[in-house]
């Protein structure tokens, strides 16, 4: 068995932990680059995404975005200190000072490419994380030299551990207010979507529309609220207007999978991404699947802790349902209560929380590291993986050739039939047709980073298991 930390080095020659130094010339452009061995190239094909490549989005993210996330958390804790003390008690005041100091140190370690530090508190997943860090190569366990996916997951997990190991403010969500505001601010979009989807046909054409609406909701974590609202309304006015920006659409194959009456599998697993409007569109798609008889149950998977700012936790899931059911608008409260009824009847179900989703591992390690979760997914008629990070974990965060067949890129991870619904926000993609990339590069050189393009892709698990 391969070491846990070496998961980006999967078979078929994909993603060696280091690219051959002779294959390119290192050109140092700044003191920072020279000090931390940053090379002025794009991510090479079949290498994992990493901040060591200056012309990659990974480098931009680590240099310009992740430090801002930590700064904003520090600022919000400082600004809301009085409110938090009132909520958690006077003893929380000193703890907040300590936590702010720990976050400042984490930011310094990020900005100076320090090695990952093991977890030393009462984290439920401490042993898993520490084993993972121990198995990373010495030159692949710092913020810039490690796989980008590992770095991001480490930062967010370490960030939450500061609260998790506190005495007085355990389970506090740094990003709770952001997610609550995102939900409250999109109520007009929610109302429009409810009205749009009340009388829907049981057809592949309508299902395709529902998938596209769900796809483009994944853009909402990128945009300022006003821009997001305008885009949401534009999609509802004419869903087909975005067709030129969907680079792969396997909706008909997904429909055939769900329409299959010969299988004994009758439920769908939905691995969620962002809270707010996106979560609501996920509920609407799940409602369609239930009401059209395509599945008897939809089981939702959430993150075990606050994750990548806007990802859905158990608290967000329940808070959203409560907010909808108690809304002052009758139509919104009606749909919220319908979803709660679905929960009571077992048509909607919240899956047991798994720390695998907030770990650093690519999904092809699930069968070994989290066999119970893997067996759960094997029982599914269809697994829906939502969003960019889930996509990257499926593909081990490797810079694949975009035309490479997706099955080749999965490292053997096919627990059942699954689809990915994702707007593209990183240079990790596969399964595209010949010629698509060439046209895009001419039209939009930054097409992989803007979220303006998306994919709806399908992998047929029945081919793997013969049912």
From TrEMBL:
Task: Identify the residues that the record assigns to the Damage-control phosphatase ARMT1-like metal-binding domain, covering every copy.
Answer: 66-439
Pfam families reported in the protein's UniProt record = ARMT1-like_dom
Q: Which GO terms describe its molecular function?
A: fructose 6-phosphate aldolase activity; fructose-1-phosphatase activity; metal ion binding; protein-glutamate O-methyltransferase activity; pyrophosphatase activity
Gene Ontology process terms (BP)? DNA damage response; intracellular phosphate ion homeostasis; methylation
Q: What does this protein need as cofactor?
A: Mn(2+); Ni(2+)
- The domain of life is Eukaryota
Ordered alphabetically, the record's keywords are: Hydrolase, Manganese, Metal-binding, Methyltransferase, Nickel, Transferase
Question: What does the record give as EC number?
Answer: 2.1.1.-, 3.1.3.-
GO cellular component annotations, sorted alphabetically? nucleus
Question: Which reaction is catalysed here?
Answer: beta-D-fructose 6-phosphate = dihydroxyacetone + D-glyceraldehyde 3-phosphate; L-glutamyl-[protein] + S-adenosyl-L-methionine = [protein]-L-glutamate 5-O-methyl ester + S-adenosyl-L-homocysteine; beta-D-fructose 1-phosphate + H2O = D-fructose + phosphate
List the PANTHER family hit by this protein, alphabetically: DAMAGE-CONTROL PHOSPHATASE ARMT1
Task performed by this protein:
Metal-dependent phosphatase that shows phosphatase activity against several substrates, including fructose-1-phosphate and fructose-6-phosphate. Its preference for fructose-1-phosphate, a strong glycating agent that causes DNA damage rather than a canonical yeast metabolite, suggests a damage-control function in hexose phosphate metabolism. Has also been shown to have O-methyltransferase activity that methylates glutamate residues of target proteins to form gamma-glutamyl methyl ester residues. Possibly methylates PCNA, suggesting it is involved in the DNA damage response.
Annotated domain remarks? Subfamily III proteins have a conserved RTxK motif about 40-50 residues from the C-terminus; the threonine may be replaced by serine or cysteine.
| Family of this protein | Belongs to the damage-control phosphatase family. Sugar phosphate phosphatase III subfamily.
Protein name (database record): Sugar phosphate phosphatase
The gene coding this protein: Dvir\GJ20494
């Amino acid at each position: 068995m391969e070491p846990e930390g070496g998961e980006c080095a999967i078979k078929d020659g994909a993603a060696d932990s280091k690219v051959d130094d002779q294959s390119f010339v290192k050109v140092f452009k700044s003191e920072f680059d020279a000090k931390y061995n940053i090379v002025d190239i794009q991510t090479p094909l079949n290498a994992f995404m990493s901040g060591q490549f200056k012309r990659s989005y990974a480098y931009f993210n680590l240099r310009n975005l992740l430090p801002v996330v930590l700064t904003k958390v520090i600022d919000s804790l400082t600004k809301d200190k009085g409110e938090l003390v009132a909520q958690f008690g006077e003893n929380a005041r000193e703890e907040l000072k300590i936590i702010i100091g720990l976050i400042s140190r984490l930011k310094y370690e990020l900005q100076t490419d320090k090695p990952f530090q093991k977890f030393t508190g009462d984290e439920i997943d401490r042993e898993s994380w520490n084993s993972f860090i121990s198995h990373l190569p010495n030159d692949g366990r710092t913020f810039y030299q490690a796989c980008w996916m590992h770095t991001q997951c480490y930062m967010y997990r370490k960030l939450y551990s500061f609260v998790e190991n506190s005495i007085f403010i355990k389970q506090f969500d740094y990003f709770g207010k952001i997610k609550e505001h995102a939900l409250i601010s999109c109520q007009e979009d929610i109302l429009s979507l409810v009205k749009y989807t009340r009388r829907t046909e049981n057809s592949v054409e309508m299902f395709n529309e529902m998938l596209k609406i769900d796809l483009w909701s994944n853009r909402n974590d990128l945009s300022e609220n006003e821009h997001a609202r305008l885009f949401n309304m534009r999609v509802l006015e004419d869903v087909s207007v975005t067709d030129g920006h969907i680079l792969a659409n396997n909706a008909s194959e997904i429909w055939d999978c769900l329409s299959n009456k010969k299988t004994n599998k009758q439920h769908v697993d939905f691995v969620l991404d962002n809270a707010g409007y996106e979560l609501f569109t996920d509920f609407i798609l799940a409602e369609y699947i239930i009401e059209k008889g395509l599945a008897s149950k939809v089981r939702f998977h959430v993150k075990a802790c606050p994750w990548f700012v806007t990802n859905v936790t158990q608290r967000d899931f329940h808070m959203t349902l409560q907010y909808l059911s108690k809304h002052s608008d009758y139509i919104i409260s009606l749909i919220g209560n319908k979803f709660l009824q679905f929960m009571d009847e077992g048509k909607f179900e919240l899956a047991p929380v798994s720390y695998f989703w907030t770990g650093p591992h690519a999904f092809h390690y699930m069968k070994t590291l989290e066999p119970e979760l893997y067996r759960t997914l094997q029982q599914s008629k269809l697994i829906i993986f939502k969003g960019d990070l889930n996509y990257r974990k499926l593909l081990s965060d490797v810079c694949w050739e975009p035309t490479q067949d997706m099955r080749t890129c999965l490292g053997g991870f096919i627990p059942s039939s699954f689809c990915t619904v994702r707007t593209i926000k990183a240079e990790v993609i596969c399964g595209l047709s010949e010629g698509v990339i060439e046209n895009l590069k001419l039209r939009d050189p930054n097409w992989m980073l803007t979220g303006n393009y998306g994919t709806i892709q399908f992998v047929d698990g029945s081919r793997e298991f013969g049912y």
